[in-house]
Design goal:
The chain is an alpha+beta fold. The chain contains 9 helices and 15 strands. The chain has helices at 3-6, 17-24, 33-37, 63-69, 110-117, 130-144, 161-173, 213-220, 241-246, and strands at 11-15, 27-32, 54-55, 77-78, 83-90, 96-98, 104-106, 123-127, 147-152, 154-156, 184-186, 194-200, 224-228, 236-240, 250-251. β10, α7 and β11 (184-186) form a beta-alpha-beta unit. The chain is globular and about 50 Å long.
Length: 254
């Protein structure tokens, strides 16, 4: 992939206008991972019980634990409940087209548009300068001392139990950094093309509830955080969602 070109791709944040104005001021809104894993009654189109987690490839290993604790866990998963996530859309090379005039444009595919509409928000925050946005995130990480990572999500086929088992063992053994787990999602969500900001807050209520799964699920999933960076109003623009859809093709200036 052409790294120089992808650095010029805008990032998109779908939300209602009043919240995007706060986002542009540098108030990066984060939700706990468990919120996204518990959306079946809220948003069936986006429900993923393994969002930011890996399915446990050998659930029988946990049978004894569940019997001892009298807790039935429907979706056994490997995750860190202290992780809080902020999501954006990231263009990639599949969104690139070259015109007969030699111009380079980016556009959303029909699948991308469908995924965006499922958010049911009224506006889009377009962050034009991706490199500067990432610089300000890094600056805030160093300033605030919060443990955060930010990059694109990797999509894997969660129906391939053998491949997921290998991946799971790599994380458990330390071959892969556990901090990367929140950046892996099921391939059926690939058209969301997520870019994530994931921050770990060790003072989360999850620390004291780690052995009380049901209480953890209920009390932690509604927790939110704000990761504060310098304003990005100078490198972004808020556009009504309908207007954005009418101008899907965007010229990448030289």
């Amino acid at each position: 992939m052409n790294r120089t070109l992808t650095n010029r791709f805008p990032l998109l944040r779908f939300d209602n206008e009043k919240w995007l104005k706060e986002y542009a001021k540098g108030h990066i809104f984060l939700r706990n991972l468990l919120y996204y894993q518990s959306m079946e009654e809220i948003d069936a189109a986006r429900f993923d019980p393994f969002d930011g987690a890996l399915p446990v490839s050998a659930p029988n290993l946990f049978t004894e634990y569940q019997q001892d604790s009298n807790i039935e866990i429907k979706h056994l998963r490997l995750m860190n409940p202290n992780i809080f996530v902020g999501c954006l859309f990231s263009y990639d090379m599949n969104n690139v087209r070259h015109t007969e005039c030699g111009q380079t444009v980016i556009h959303l595919s029909d699948e991308n548009v469908k995924a965006a509409k499922e958010f049911a928000k009224d506006s889009v925050l377009v962050i034009f300068d991706r490199v500067e946005f990432e610089r300000r995130i890094t600056e805030a990480i160093n300033r605030n001392g919060v443990k955060c990572l930010h990059h694109k999500v990797f999509y894997k086929d969660y129906s391939d139990r053998k491949a997921i088992g290998v991946l799971e063992n790599e994380f458990i053994s330390g071959q892969r950094a556990r901090e990367e787990i929140p950046f892996i999602k099921d391939i059926r969500f690939r058209f969301q093309q997520e870019y994530r900001i994931c921050c770990e807050y060790q003072n989360s209520i999850a620390d004291s509830l780690a052995d009380e799964y049901i209480k953890l699920e209920r009390e932690v999933k509604e927790q939110t955080r704000f990761f504060e960076i310098n304003s990005i109003e100078d490198i972004s623009r808020i556009i009504p969602f309908d207007v954005f859809l009418e101008s899907l093709y965007q010229l990448l200036e030289d």
